[in-house]
Design a protein that fits this description.
Layout lengths: L10 E5 L4 E6 L4 H10 L1 H4 L3 E4 L1 H11 L4 E2 L7 H10 L5 E5 L9 H13 L4 E2 L2 H8 L8 E5 L3 H4 L12
Helix pairs in contact: 1-3, 4-5
Length: 166
């Protein structure tokens, strides 16, 4: 029987049945997200919700629950949610973004999506994907999310004798 060395086993993060869901929508997609949220009110209100500014205000009206609101996306809200991802404080993201409209904060949008991929956080970028994910049996149960091992990246210069500080 093979055993796993705890020192080399992949790191995992327990995602509890009550998840922290971040919701974001570009202006042209806010109506779609509100319709989706209204349809999934029963599922969404079982979780802790956070959102960028305007989206959060609209969600509070539609769902009738408190939503932790960050700044508007172009004013830093996407980056605030990205920081939560990096800290392990977001379990799931629903981001209805508009692929046909240029965004002044496009680098922030890409950074948010990149961090979700880096930290293995589930992301739904359209209604169909959001429907599949919110209806998954994993939404109401505990889940062990594998975390990437960045130890070699963090320590990549430790053994390099040619790297010096001046």
């Amino acid at each position: 029987m093979a055993t796993t060395n705890p020192a080399t086993a992949p790191a995992k993060k327990a995602i509890l049945p009550r998840k922290r869901i971040a919701l974001v929508a570009h202006d042209n997609k806010k109506k779609d997200l509100m319709e989706w949220a209204r349809f999934n009110k029963g599922s969404l209100t079982a979780h802790d919700l956070c959102a960028t500014g305007t989206t959060g205000t609209l969600l509070e009206r539609v769902l009738g629950v408190e939503v932790q609101k960050f700044k508007s996306g172009p004013l830093g809200g996407d980056q605030q949610i990205g920081a939560l991802i990096a800290e392990g404080l977001v379990d799931f993201i629903i981001f209805f973004w508009d692929p046909l409209e240029p965004q002044p904060h496009d680098p922030d949008v890409k950074a948010l999506l990149r961090l979700a991929v880096v930290w293995n956080v589930p992301v739904a970028c359209n209604r169909a994907t959001a429907d599949f994910l919110i209806s998954s049996p994993l939404m109401s149960s505990e889940y062990e999310r594998a975390l990437p091992d960045f130890e070699s990246h963090i320590n990549r210069y430790e053994a390099d004798a040619n790297m010096t500080t001046d």
